[in-house]
Amino acid sequence: MRVLVVGDVVGRPGRSAVRSLLPRIVEEHEIHFIIVNAENAAGGSGITEPTARELFEAGAHVLTTGNHVWGQREAFGFVDREERLLRPANFPDGAPGRGAGVYQVRGERVGVVNVQGRTFMQALEDPFRTAEELVGRLREECRIIFVDMHAEATSEKMALARFLDGKVTCVFGTHTHVPTADECILPGGTAYITDVGMTGPVDSIIGMQPKAIIERFLTGLPVRFEVARGKAALHGILVDADERTGAATAIERIRLTQD
Ligand SMILES: [Fe+2]
Question: In the prediction, which pLDDT does 74 show?
Answer without folding.
Answer: 87
